[in-house]
Here is the input.
Amino acid sequence: MSETTQTTQTFTPLSTQAERLIELGVHEIAGLPAAEVRAAVQGAGDGDFLLAVRPDLAPASVLAPLLRRRDRAGFVVTDMTDVDLFAPLDTIGLPDTPLYLVSGVDRGDDMANWSPDEALLALTAASRTPLLLTEGIHWVLQRPDVLERNHCFMTIGSRLRKPNGTLDARTPALWISNGTGRDGRERRDAPKVGWCWAGNRHTWLGFASGEERRGLEP
Here is the structure.
């Protein structure tokens, strides 16, 4: 396997991202006044960042239906009813503020056809942090075009821990439904939250990551 490379994603200004979340009602989901969201980004300074809400305030199951691809609403696969139990890995230091920033976000196309287990080792070695599932959803909420046929991504920063302390073998991902099986024809081309096995490889899934996270104070 080759050494990983990244291409930094370009985001709209934080004020624009804040308005997008407010438009979608994410602030209400998180129990945050719109004024507080706007105030938090005002003092954040310049930079190319993704604005995110902590997953315990805005869980994946609630955010996923806000996703859109053309006229199709996003959804979580039917066999992932425990999606909100997928929590940050122990190695990820999540800011304790309701809103925070992720810098240097990359889709990880160069790691397509790697397994999640392999990708996590490589990202750690490169001092990169894998995105959480909710961060991936926030990304697509801001930039729906980041999900492309044959170029979607995994969010292996979120994992489910079993009662015995070991990690569940499923790793979450975001891709585009083909409208087959339990998805249903009506969901063809819809943004989809699903999962893959930690040891499996897929040619069409990269591994989304960032450089660091920074909290935002209102």
In short: The first helix runs from residue 14 to 24.
